[in-house]
Structure to design on (1536 residues):
């Protein structure tokens, strides 16, 4: 099974989607449909760790990469989801370099950070061959593969993006266009020049540092556009939206 | 809020869908998209009463009619879902008139059947005005509104359909085309003349008895066709299928 | 801790209540308030085995006797609740002696019935001293203590009550006054002479067989009355009703 | 359906209660009994977001206002409960103005704070008409309606109450009499002059700022008294206490 | 991944264990330890379908064969567990050939039985290549692989074993030594000649019909013995027992 | 029932284990096997408060002491687990004296800290005799019994151990050997002199302050060794490891 970090290194431009239903069957369907990854959204959803863990297990069964968007920076939010097998963590609302450093402290083993060590599900509780080359090699490889990706969606983050993305251990940036535009006082006006400049700035700065940039797209048309603009990955809509919109089309078509 | 039994009496041809995710958020989205009812599928899904009860509550909140497909005929399967507010029960695999009578025994109050009585959630635990006109008026009205709908999907049911649909308290018939075709030895060959004759027979017999006929349709095109053929309601696909097929389209479109 | 079967043998007239919230904290509160037993109502509630098991554990922790009202007669409904520690099973809607015999088959070990044997939680998984005197002594004692109590609430059961209560292994009768009156065509008219005769008949017949009779009472006044009438136990109202009625009083009092 | 913020503006003196059972059926019963709001207590209860979300949905179905007492100040505790539809947040243990400002940062959209934006259940996932007048009007109106209410129950908060309640975005104050008296070294001695002075101070300061004051009352007598004293709302006891106390009365009455 | 039916056909003598904790992590550990299959015990445990489904998914993720012991014969118990991916069903307490036929009716597709058809998780909801060779080939192959295994643990089953095991679609027999010995009046006296004759009879009759025989063994010594006696598979102890016994050894050793 | 704080005061050298399955049945088995306490591990496990609360209740039912390892320092993590009955809290990853003081603020009532007060399950919701001697006596006694135990597993904590263990209200220290060795750059090399010196330092410093020291041991041999070295308590392995290792032995033995 290919990790999302491998896909990005290979320049594959993986596509994914948000999971807001909190349903592992929905996670399974997203995998069956051919997506490369999903992001379980714990920021705006009425569920938490238990549902995320279910979706992560399903991801491993079906060969899709599981990422988790946590609701806030905390040791538990980062450590526990990595310990059940998330390949990466998306962090909303980040404002400062200090916060980025905290993320690395919680999410990377020594010497990059101080992630707590325990042989959990992610390494078959230590009974498989995860430690065949020693614990240090295991923690080194895990540090390399684990993706820690702050969202750029506040004015503070946008202003300090170069400093933030330079933190060792930060893997890339995810642009949240709605909150960013709201913070800029131009809600959902994605065609405004200042918004376009903002995302171009993020793209340029990150690519200089060799770090990938993700962005959300509400539909496939925008998704294609963003890929053409040079984004490394697009997260297209979310499970409940895709379903609702498809049903709207069915109702309209039958009632017509 | 309009009941599905009212819609059918008014000749409205309500449309619905199956819920196989077992997610009340999915139920909510189906309501938001404008469907008239959903059928929580407890026959082929890995969930049960708890999830069904969640979806029923969500239906009442959003003004969509909740139906439940139970996995087998039993007092608990019928009584407990009606007690939390299902407007009707779909019963798979029925073969005999005796089974139809059992359904009525469990699902209708005396004198039609012997449904157990208790002031539950469905009548505000008795504290609202449900019993304003006495218990007998309450049980009479409930008997009138509660829909008990066996599926016609076995050879035995098809052969004895007139006898089965004549049972007092049985509200109509739901045709399960896949299992029916499988039972006939022509799996999914819905254009075969013998299959067409079979569903015409069910339609004719039921309409003579003034009882509505529902049928499943895998997509909106078939749904429109079935409505033109005279079916009283079409259940279009299911939540997980609608979502998966929409994602397949997204993946194909972006990767093209 | 005193079993309910002991209390009844001692002539103690235990009082209990129904649990319809499905909440183990509610079960705990009922124990703290001093009730002798509760009946988890799986007949009319939107929950099942998991919640019942939680309430049973809480009962054992707090020293109150746990009974379960099952939604229908089946091996699983009887066996699984006894295996987690219910002291007895209340069975609704019974009509025939054959059904009573089935209950005993599922609920009592050989030679009375054929209850499946397994060292479960109820006997510390066999690691405690439950089998100190051998398995046969264990099954004998369990048979003696386990209460199997059908409800008398159908015309058929009322007519054949002597025959039904005579089945060896049936421990007593629980009168469900609402359904019984509904079946008699006099819903909730508990002062009608034919209703009074009916419950007197059940009392007389059961006491001749030395088997206790339980009855439901919607409030404490009726409860006291029933105890004076010779009932061996009264089940007073249910958790959600007691709570709702107390809140109604609070609202009325403050708004007055 | 009337919001609690509307009731307060209208000078209605809404009454509510705590939910400590974590049961949506209990929430339903509180609504049926006629309470204006409830506060799901996540501070001292063994449950969390999932149960709170269930109770919020039930509130919306039954037309009662749902508030949540969170266990501590954090972005997730505030954002996630608002995103599923809580009308307000009660915050225990507050000590400083800085904490009050943090609450506003997490709980109000820009420009008051920086609450993350996402079309969730609270606005029909964006498919209804919530955004008919634009996103800015939506966030403005939501900011106006959302109640952020710190508890005054520490010495620090009492001393700095004027400063704290002046923070823009803080909607009012909730007095926790037990913890406040404990902090003052006079546990549960509510008749002590220094305690009376303390609550008078809070009332006076808040009313000068036109912000409502809530207080907890353990029973209906105290509730009436507090309303007479000028409190804008009283939260009367909690679901498990009301139930336990009602059962105690039943047991006493029958055993007498 | 090898199916248990393949292992048995190859004469591999697979070993397994019971799962009584109802924990998918426990299921995972049993897989990691190298067992060939597990049997989720729904007969004597306080959990049900949801936990079984979790364990089945974990089995598929870890490459171990999932079997389910159901609490009683019913359409739902058989159909729903097969639909989420159980490779076989163990049925306790069977007495008659009629019951064996019912099991086949519910557990095998036409023409052997009348199992309801639906593209569920077990075939990737129909979106994979499960139906590449048509539905009939799919149902034929599924019928061939699905194991339906009654327990021999009643006197009636023992007496009629030849007739029972001859039912087409019944895959083999599982001997439950405790209940069988209890039924014979010699509880847990497995060295009695009449008990030895009984199990020899079952072995001989089944092997004549080319159907495998499973037996439970409480420990590894007995397990080895049973394999030497010619049993095709041994189910060794259960998860909670293995754990408890290991802890007993730890406590004894440290306290010594 | 003996509290763990009593056992330690008596010099009993209690032994315990970690719970990583999150299963209350596993908790029950650990009690049955004779352990003195368990630590529900919320740091590295995919579960949380709900499962911890279940295990705590089971502990009280079976007479074993429940401790909780929280994932990070926060008011909710400490308060809520104490409110449902945990006898103590283990805190991972501690670095500074300030953090130790925060733990006391959240976990001890005034005057030591400012733990929020509410009559919860731990004191029978105030209806028992917990407050017979007044609230102040209750909070004093609870402060005395509640164990707050930071882990020593970072270089910072090791360096400042004397300062940290001196905080009033901190009950003792738990050495996490794996993370400590990882932080020292010598992962799992417990025989290195610098590692031995480190744990000797912790032992000496804590014993001078009359505070007990716990340590983790992966097996019974190491456990005995640690007790001989003067540790006050050893936490031996965890439930899922004990089970997995026992199954590995079974598989090896049968396959041999
Ligand atoms: Mg955002
Ligand atoms: Mg079908
Ligand atoms: Mg009844
Ligand atoms: Mg407080
Ligand atoms: Mg058995
Ligand atoms: Mg550690």
């Amino acid at each position: 099974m290919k990790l999302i970090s491998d896909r990005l290194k290979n320049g594959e431009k993986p596509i994914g989607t948000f999971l807001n239903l909190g349903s592992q069957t929905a996670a399974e369907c997203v995998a069956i449909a051919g997506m490369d990854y999903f992001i379980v959204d714990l920021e705006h959803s009425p569920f938490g760790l238990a549902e995320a863990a279910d979706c992560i297990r399903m991801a491993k069964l079906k060969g899709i990469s599981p990422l988790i968007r946590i609701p806030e920076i905390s040791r538990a939010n980062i450590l526990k989801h990595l310990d059940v097998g998330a390949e990466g963590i998306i962090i909303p609302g980040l404002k400062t370099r200090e916060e980025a450093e905290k993320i690395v402290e919680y999410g990377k083993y020594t010497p990059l950070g101080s992630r707590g060590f325990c042989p959990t599900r992610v390494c078959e509780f230590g009974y498989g061959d995860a430690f065949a080359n020693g614990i240090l090699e295991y923690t080194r490889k895990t540090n390399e593969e684990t993706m820690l990706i702050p969202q750029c969606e506040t004015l503070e983050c946008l202003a300090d993006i170069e400093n933030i993305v330079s933190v060792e251990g930060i893997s890339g940036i995810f642009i949240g266009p709605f909150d960013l535009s709201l913070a800029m006082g131009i809600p959902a006006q994605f065609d405004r020049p200042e918004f376009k400049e903002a995302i171009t700035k993020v793209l340029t700065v990150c690519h200089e540092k060799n770090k990938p940039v993700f962005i959300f797209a509400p539909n496939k048309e925008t998704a294609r556009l963003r890929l053409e603009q040079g984004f490394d990955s697009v997260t297209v809509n979310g499970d409940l939206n895709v379903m609702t919109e498809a049903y709207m089309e069915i109702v309209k078509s039958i009632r017509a």
User: Anything to note?
Assistant: The mean pLDDT of chain D is 97. Residues D 92, 153, 176, 179; F 116 surround magnesium ion (ligand 4) (CB under 6 Å).
